[in-house]
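FOLDING PROBLEM:
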Amino acid sequence: MSYAGDLTPQEAWAKLEDGAILVDVRTEGEWAHIGIPDIRSAGGTRNDPLFIQWNLAGGIPNAQFVEQLKQQAPGDQGTELVFLCRSGARSVAAAIAATEAGFTSYNVLEGFEGEPDRHGGRTVNGWKNRGLPTNPGKH
C-alpha cells in the first residue's frame, strides 16, 4: 500500500479525536449541495476540515492539489491527514499523492455518501449514513 491505510468512518473519527486533520477532496459543488463533515465535536486540532478539490469542475484534475495541500496543512510531518471524498475513490488517489509529498495519509473507506443502493440512492454506508456529524454545505 502506498499510503498509511484505509479507515472506516468511525476509525477516521477516532483519528480526528487524536489530532489528525480531515481533508475533504470533493468538489465545490458537492460541498455546497450535499453537505460537509462537521468535526467540531471531535475535539481535534482543527474545527473544520481542509477543503481541497482533487478534481475541478468537469472532472479536470486539480494540478495544484499537492501545492494547495502543502500551503494549508501544517508543516509538521508528524501530523496525520485523513482524506475523504464521496465514495472513497478520489481520496485514495489524494492519500497516495500526499504520501509521496511526505505526509502520513489515510483514506476513509465508504467516503462521505457511501455506496449506491439498488435504486442508485446513496443510503448504504459512508460518513453521513453512519451517523457522523454533518453540516448542510459549504458555499
User: Anything to note?
Assistant: Helices lie at 9-17, 28-34, 65-72, 90-100. The mean pLDDT is 92.
